[in-house]
Specification:
The structure holds two protein chains of two kinds.
Chain A lengths: L9 E15 L6 H10 L4 E15 L3 E5 L6 H8 L7 E7 L2 E3 L13 H11 L4 H15 L14 H13 L5 E5 L7 H16 L3 E5 L3 H7 L2 E6 L2 E7 H14 L1
Parallel strand pairs in A: 3-7, 3-8, 5-6, 6-7
Antiparallel strand pairs in A: 1-2, 1-4, 8-9
Chain B lengths: L7 E3 L6 H11 L1 H16 L7 H19 L8 H27 L3 H5 L6 H28 L10 H25 L2 H16 L11 H9 L2 H15 L5 H32 L1
Helix pairs in contact in B: 2-6, 3-4, 3-6, 4-6, 4-7, 4-8, 4-10, 6-7, 7-8, 7-10, 7-11, 10-11
């Protein structure tokens, strides 16, 4: 096994990473049917390659963009990086703590108050309670929800929900932050705040992976990007070049 | 360098998953606590009586069942304590295993998005069950006090009983969920099995109604019978379980837990492909 040089500037390395979902060719629902077919050797699968031979290095402190159409494998790639999915083949090497920005509502419970949800969310991200206590004021401040923080989350609007979510998951200065379409929520002023915070992160050496359908966001925030299509990386490099390739590809299609 | 930067995840160099899970549960212990808290708080927050329902609900059920069956099985002196000691044991087992299966088989939004020990939800389900069990036991003491049933020192044995019951339930929950992730039918089937299993275990009826000839095998092949004994002997009979009962119960529950934990961990990498 080749040793990965731990002194390098990379914080994420994917080597020949493939993810293959096995979709059953026919629906087998019962254990009995399965057992019979297993004995007869009649179990068929259709393989679906969500990711194929992905090689990617992401450096410390950069904001790395991922673009691609729906179904290109972006979410699968993020899952592999955040350790949710173990790749079928290949190797994932990650240095540091990964914090995915949780989807709206995930991990948040509607009956709990904003404050209780911040505690829950913090422990989900793997932080000890005492540490969360220390961040509480800052999170409430950033989300601009001080008056509502003791109300149950079900009374929040989706914008408020998103503000709390973003505040809770970005107040930690994680080593690696994953943002999936987060900039499409909230109003203009909140989005500006998010961007400012991401730029602060870059200065503090947090690595950010940003997935967005908005080329403007990708261009204004990222130095490098990758274009993913049907589970393969079609282009990777400086953001302008990748976007240009992507546009050419879209025009051709 | 910040300490968390030393944290390196390398999919090509992982230790045994079962140990990784165990370490994970320890690292994420605050999460387990928060999940238990969430379960308790969210369940009762909107009701007026709030947390009191945790007590009122089993109380209501205990009263009804005692009333219904007392007449049927009058042979047993102090029947309510007999039945209640069995019922709290069974309720814990049925509730926690079901909670584990539901949360693992249907996955949660969280498990799809972020890494956390995959046993987190199973362990927290046991935690929630333990809180409920402790409340039920307090309630049972109250009922015993009101009924004038004498307490014995043997109740000090209960922590051991609880520990073994929890281990057994966690083990069964993990085994069934691992199978049910591939075959969701198993989760449905388990409901039927649970009902049958409950009636096969002497919870509401006296052991004597099973004919003498079958009694030995009928009870001894049922793992829940041995665990039930750990609760009924100190609470109802007022004696500490004898060595034989204890050894069998320890063997059954620790073996189930170990098998469940290993089986679940071995398969857990595949789960994300199903969720």
């Amino acid at each position: 096994m080749i040793d990965i040089d731990t002194q390098s500037k990379d914080v994420i390395r994917l080597e020949n990473v493939s993810v293959r979902y096995r979709l059953p060719g026919e629906r087998i629902h019962t254990f009995k049917e399965y057992a019979i077919r297993l004995l007869q050797g009649r179990i068929k699968y259709k393989d679906f390659n969500a990711l194929q031979n992905i090689n990617l290095q992401i450096h410390k402190g950069e904001i790395f963009g991922i673009i691609g159409n729906n179904g290109a494998g972006k979410s699968t790639l993020l899952k592999v990086i955040s350790r949710v999915l173990i790749p079928t083949h290949g190797r994932v090497w990650i240095k540091g703590k990964v914090a995915p920005m949780l989807e709206l509502g995930a991990g948040f419970h509607p009956e709990l108050t904003g404050r209780e949800n911040v505690f829950l969310n913090g422990t989900i991200l793997g932080h000890p309670l005492r540490e969360i206590e220390g961040h509480m004021d800052e999170i409430i401040e950033f989300s601009e929800l001080r008056t509502f923080i003791e109300s149950p989350l079900r009374t929040y609007s989706s914008g408020m929900n998103a503000r709390l979510g973003f505040a809770a998951s970005t107040s930690w200065e994680p080593d690696i932050l994953i943002l999936d379409e987060v900039l499409s929520v909230g109003d203009e002023s909140f989005r500006r705040k998010c961007k400012t915070r991401m730029k602060e992160f870059r200065n503090r050496k947090t690595t950010t992976i940003l997935v967005s359908h908005s080329m403007n966001n990708i261009r204004s925030l990222c130095e490098r990007a990758a274009w993913l299509d049907h589970g393969k990386i079609l282009a990777v490099g400086p953001v302008n070049e990748v976007i240009a390739e992507y546009r050419r590809g879209q025009a051709g299609a | 360098m910040e300490p968390s930067e030393d944290l390196i995840y390398d999919s090509a160099r992982r230790g045994p998953v079962a140990l990784e899970e165990l370490r994970g549960i320890f690292q994420y212990r605050d999460l387990i606590y928060q999940l238990v808290r969430r379960d308790m708080v969210s369940r009762y927050k909107r009701s007026v009586l709030g947390i009191a329902w945790t007590l009122l609900q089993p109380l209501g059920m205990m009263i009804i069942i005692s009333l219904v069956f007392s007449n049927l099985f009058q042979a047993i002196k102090g029947y309510p304590v007999y039945i209640l000691s069995g019922l709290i044991t069974w309720t814990f087992f049925a509730q926690t295993t079901n909670a584990i299966i539901t949360q693992i088989v249907w996955g949660s939004e969280l498990l799809r998005q972020i890494y956390m020990p995959r046993t987190s939800f199973a362990v927290s389900a046991i935690g929630t069950g333990l809180v409920n069990l402790l409340l039920s036991i307090i309630l049972l003491f109250l009922i015993m006090f009101v009924m004038g049933v004498s307490f014995h020192w043997s109740i000090l044995f209960l922590p051991v009983s609880i520990l073994l019951l929890a281990a057994f339930s966690l083990g069964v929950g993990l085994i069934i969920s691992t199978v049910a992730i591939h075959f969701p039918d198993v989760a449905e089937m388990y409901q039927i099995i649970l009902t049958a299993w409950m009636y096969l275990t002497p919870i509401i009826y006296p052991e004597k109604i099973i004919p003498e000839a079958y009694r030995f095998w009928f009870f001894n092949l049922n793992p829940m019978y041995h665990i039930l004994k750990l609760f009924r002997m100190p609470l109802f009979d007022g004696v500490v379980p004898d060595a034989k009962t204890l050894i069998v119960a320890v063997a059954v529950s620790s073996l189930t837990l170990i098998i469940g934990w290993l089986f679940f961990s071995k398969r857990s990498d595949e789960f994300a492909y199903y969720w």
